[in-house]
Specification:
single chain; 246 residues; alpha/beta; Rossmann fold; 7-stranded mixed sheet; 9 helices; 7 strands
Length: 246
């Protein structure tokens, strides 16, 4: 099944593979647990949020959690990102995790379609130390992005997977010179390699991944963090507008 999926990817015109890899899990669950246990524990307000997500919201597995939350915080911290855009708030865990990595004066704008999720996130953001640094905007993310002024130093993309390419086209012109996009779930539990899975989200992610690796506008690395996090930067860093860290 996995090998057939790789061959199907090549037939669709995706990036050529130098070797075939056969995997049963993206990351061994035991190793995943070890990595999580050896990642700095989240603060109390994130623990409380995670508890309430599991108790109150459907599909709590959509929450990034401890490992990816710290990973996102580190990316924001390392970039010195002053302006962060998030596409897909869900319960607010990722926004609050990233806020801990912001420099003084840094802010996060996070887009959420669901009124229930937006209200949940606002409640927990208001109870955190970062309430004045995060704005939740409710409504279709593509409309919100179109209304925002760039540039953004860091963008976390974690919304409906079928529309990832549309989000990329909306975000890229507003990405800072040395900015970074992190797109979540780009390995999609291995479903991308199942040739019988033609659901809209799976097909959308296939198109996104295949387009990215041949797009001359960007430089890309697809990681195996959690369910796959793809990091994207502009290729034209000398010519594009944006922030210039000291």
């Amino acid at each position: 099944m996995i090998r057939s999926g790789i061959e199907a990817s090549q037939a669709r015109g995706g990036c050529s593979l130098s070797y075939d890899a056969v995997v049963s899990d993206i990351v061994d669950p035991v190793l995943e647990a070890y990595a999580t246990e050896h990642t700095t524990a989240p603060p109390g307000y994130l623990e409380a949020l995670a508890h309430d997500v599991r108790a109150e919201l459907e599909s709590p597995g959509m929450m990034v959690g401890r490992l990816e939350g710290r990973f996102l915080e580190m990316l924001v911290f390392a970039l010195g990102a002053h302006r962060v855009l998030e596409v897909g708030t869900f319960g607010g865990y990722s926004a609050l995790a990233m806020a801990a990595g912001l420099p003084p004066g840094g802010t996060i704008t996070t887009c959420e379609l669901s009124p229930e999720h937006a209200a949940f996130a606002r409640r927990h953001i208001a109870a955190s130390p970062h309430a004045d640094r995060i704005e939740v905007i409710e409504g279709p993310a593509l409309h919100t992005i179109a209304s925002l002024e760039g540039p953004f130093d860091f963008v976390f993309l974690d919304a409906d997977k079928a529309a990832y390419l549309e989000y990329l086209e909306a975000i890229l012109p507003k990405l800072a010179t040395r900015g970074l996009i992190a797109a979540d779930n780009t390995l999609w539990y291995g479903r991308l390699l199942d040739p019988t899975d033609n659901t809209p989200d799976t097909e959308g992610l296939r198109r996104f991944n295949d387009a990215l690796c041949s797009d001359p506008r960007v430089v890309v690395v697809q990681t195996t963090v959690r369910d796959g996090v793809t990091l994207i930067r502009r290729a034209d860093t000398e010519d594009s507008p944006g922030f210039h860290p000291a």
